[in-house]
UniProtKB/TrEMBL annotation:
It holds the Pfam family CO_deh_flav_C. Keywords: Oxidoreductase. Residues 1-220 form the FAD-binding PCMH-type domain. Its EC number is 1.17.1.4. This is Xanthine dehydrogenase YagS FAD-binding subunit.
Amino acid sequence: MHPFSFTKATDTREALNAGRQGGRYIAGGTTLVDLMRETVERPETLVDISDLPLREVSVTERGGLRIGALVSMTETAAHPKVRALFPLVSEALELSASAQLRNMATIGGNIMQRTRCTYFRDVTADCNKREPGSGCAALHGFNRMHAILGTSESCVATHASDVAVAFAALEATVHLLGPDGERRVPFADFLLRPGNTPNQEQNIRRGELITAVEIPALPRPLKSGYLKVRDRQSYEFALTSAAVALHVRGGVIREAKVAAGGVGTVPWKLPAVERHLIGERPSDALWTAAAEQAAGGARPLENNRFKVALLKRTVERQLRVVGGTK
């Protein structure tokens, strides 16, 4: 680990001043500290923001949900309003990590986490995300865990967060505060696809601080859930996952929100699946037909071709769990 300076912010203004000068924000530290140990990250200054007043979970005036950036994963998952309004968020969090990590990690830190790609974390390997212009070792290396959607010739790494898949499905908004004031970014625009600049991972400006993630109000009743498929039942990253929320009224699907994880360079919204569902009556045949749309545009690699079929089966299964069968 390289030498660094450390400061603790006592209020938001102090944190923003330190961030403007190049300090890196840290709260739970469950990702950044690991990367520093591996010398992937070498920040000169860490700014501890754990004392900032960003720890509230509240229902918005319209019936949505606002989650403070410093609320832990454990606190968020267990919060009665989260469980009542958007259970898929609770399920995604509880399937994300060990209890010890969930107790430490925050919502803001979770969506800011960097990829678990082994080549990214191996400083001897070529990685455009870590060192722009060096190449991507995963393209022709062992790429079983890598992405099949949203990839480029520069990067095929997946985004590891489970709750980010839920936020993508529910069309959440990220609240930011920076030197230029407050800013709101749709979740779909917050995490960036790699393109030719895989080192630019989030739509966040120098010195900006995540203050909250807001989930908009959705029609009721709303049934939702999260399914994670992995190599082992204990803590492991997803091969595929599916976040599904359905509003059914009068026997017809009026609203559908679907996203997938483990297969994309960012949490992958599935609008083609959603369009196939809206206006239809729940049935086994519908779930199968809709799930067939899930892998459109997929570009599998040598070792992860199985993800195309697995993604379809994962989406179909979760549609059936949330929507029921007839």
